[in-house]
Amino acid sequence: MADSDAQPDRSLLAQLARYGSHHGHPLNRAIHLLVDPLTVGLSFAVLDLLPVRVLGLGVGTLAYLGLAVHVSRLHVLGGALTCAWIGAASWAFASLAASAGGLRVCLGVGLCFFALQQLVGHQLVERRAPSYLVTHAGLSRLESLWESAATGSLYWPMQVLFALGFEARLAAQLRAAEARLREA
Fold this sequence. Notes:
Blueprint lengths: L11 H9 L5 H22 L5 E2 L2 E2 H16 L1 H23 L3 H25 L14 H23 L4 H16 L1
Antiparallel strand pairs: 1-2
Keywords: Membrane, Transmembrane, Transmembrane helix
């Protein structure tokens, strides 16, 4: 079987490494640690404002539930921390968006988050495209985009768990895999 026909590695380690390899500089890592969960929570809050409902649930809530299932299947504790972190951000932004003029504030904050992550973190500091713009081997463009969003949401809470001493073996394997991908 040719390399192009090979199935992509969908293990937790491979997905985290693909995402993490685009975030090597300490400043870019700090920016994303703070802003990624807020950006995802903000996105879900704004999506819930759309007039579309399925079983009474908004688009943002459905997206949150999909993300929750996905990340919890990859790592239970990391998934729980991800869901709590993003859920709190989403609730806070939904409360703000519901207030007078709050939607404009949320959209302005979202643009600032985007500029901070993409322009400062990736373009100026990292000098590398964000992972969602890269189609990874064996993945379709849509799969790469979803993996980047979902794994990016899990990556930063996992870094917190690693810093607290959880999953030391996985943390070491991840650092090595990220380094290999950066060199490739």
